[in-house]
Amino acid sequence: MGKLLEPVWGSKEFLKFIFIVNFLTSLCIFITAVALYYITRLETYLYMPLSGFQGVLAGFLVGIKQIVPDQELYLLKIKAKWLPSLMLLLSIAISFFTAESAAYLPTLIFGTYMGWIYLRYLQKKPETKLSGDPSDDFAFSSFFPEFIRPVIDPIASIFHRMLCGRRTETSGDDHGYTLGGASLPGSDPIEASRRRERGARALEERLATEKLAAAQSVEESKKDAAENV
Question: Where is this region: Disordered (predicted)?
Fold first, then answer.
């Protein structure tokens, strides 16, 4: 995942994403554990070991959803935009059968959400000097199937106004942020399409490099076999 995300974001932004998502995920888990203790008075919530890198890995899946949403996986024939949703669905299903996997569930959920929050509202865009990704393809409801989105959108809009209501005075259309009735430059789907193009190019370059390396290794093995004969 790093080979796909780092060429598009840059090394500095890649490390910044890891640090911020990991910190916010750990903070949310700590607050949740303390809140559950005060609600239930069960000390297991205070002493349950919760750690790991799963939250950042879940955030990486959100980044792949943003960059190459329409890229299909080779074996499963599933588009990349559904990877975070499928990961959470499988994790929740497995947690019903094994108690150990349930300990990782909060990390995965908060990691996915914090990764989306950062990419949606906080990530800086040097080329446009704006923050976040306001495209409809990366809305919170895009994690859910089409038939559930009419229910999710009104709820998500409340949090949207809480997070960016001060930055946007009005929203004249559905394509991006507006300020005083005029669209901000770079806030329309053009920026999202450029980001997807960069991600697709990075993926193609990586695949081409892997194919070239594989071909060279095959040729070297043939030469070694011929020399041995």
Answer: 174-201
